[in-house]
């Protein structure tokens, strides 16, 4: 009968080695197993009894600020006063919550409307969302701020990010047009402006921008000396 190969690891040997290891490190193995069981429970408890209530608390506080925002009372919505908690306070005290994240967007728009463009950019860049419209509007607003600061190259970059984030018939033609106008008016880059105007005319002809774009396209072509 052939003898057992000395270096062959059989299931029997493997089980024996595992048993030896568990016996030798019994306390450490017990702690590790307990941690594997406890961590999901701790995470659930954190979400259920801390994160979710805190998020709801922030949304409740933000309600009045949103009302003033809708009324274009941007200073009060931003800074609060009386029984109104402003968006800035919510970003500082509830920044890790969904409500705190949304407050960055509101704060950015308020700051932009108040002419505080650099601060607005900071808050708009701190905001993130999977929502197509809101995320595109935040990128576009960032572009507006850069244009107001005279940084038209960056403005075009953000307009195009907003336009191409998830192409649609609402935000895409709006921000393509803004990018094109910035190229034409600020950067004197008529070639790029013509290409962007033409993209709107070709891909979004039924939108409001698409219906207006022929005159912008004709103007840019005239400036560039394009006759065809």
User: Unreliable segments (pLDDT under 50, ≥5 consecutive)?
Assistant: 43-47
Strand count, sense and barrel status of the largest sheet are: none
Number of structural units classed as domains: 2
Number of beta strands: 0
User: What's the CATH architecture of the largest domain?
Assistant: Alpha Horseshoe
Derived from helix and strand composition plus strand pairing, the structural class reads mainly alpha
- Count of DSSP-assigned helices: 11
Q: How much β-strand is present in the residues?
A: under 5%
H and E order = HHHHHHHHHHH
Computed over alpha carbons, the radius of gyration is: 29 Å
| Residues in helices, as a percent range | over 70%
> What does the overall shape look like?
flat
The overall pLDDT, averaged over residues, is: 86
Tell me the span between the first and last alpha carbons. 94 Å
Q: At the third CATH level, what is the topology name of the largest domain? A: Serine Threonine Protein Phosphatase 5, Tetratricopeptide repeat
**CATH C-level class of the largest domain:** Mainly Alpha
């Amino acid at each position: 009968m052939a003898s057992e190969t000395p270096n062959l690891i059989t299931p029997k040997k493997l089980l024996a080695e595992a048993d030896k290891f568990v016996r030798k490190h019994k306390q450490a193995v017990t702690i590790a197993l307990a941690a594997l069981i406890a961590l999901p429970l701790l995470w659930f408890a954190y979400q259920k009894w801390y994160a979710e209530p805190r998020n709801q608390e922030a949304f409740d506080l933000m309600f009045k600020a949103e009302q003033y925002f809708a009324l274009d009372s941007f200073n009060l919505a931003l800074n609060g006063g009386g029984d109104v908690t402003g968006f800035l306070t919510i970003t500082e005290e509830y920044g890790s919550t969904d409500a705190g994240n949304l407050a960055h967007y509101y704060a950015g728009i308020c700051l932009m409307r108040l002419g505080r463009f650099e601060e607005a950019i900071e808050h708009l860049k701190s905001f993130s969302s999977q929502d197509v419209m809101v995320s595109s509007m935040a990128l576009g607003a960032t572009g507006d701020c850069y244009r107001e600061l005279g940084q038209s190259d960056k403005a075009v970059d953000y307009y195009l990010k907003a336009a191409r984030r998830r192409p649609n018939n609402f935000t895409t033609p709006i921000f393509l047009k803004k990018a094109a106008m910035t190229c034409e008016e600020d950067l004197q880059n008529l070639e790029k402006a013509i290409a962007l105007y033409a993209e709107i005319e070709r891909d979004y002809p039924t939108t409001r921008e698409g219906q207006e774009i022929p005159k912008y396209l004709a103007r840019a072509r005239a400036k560039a000396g394009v006759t065809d």
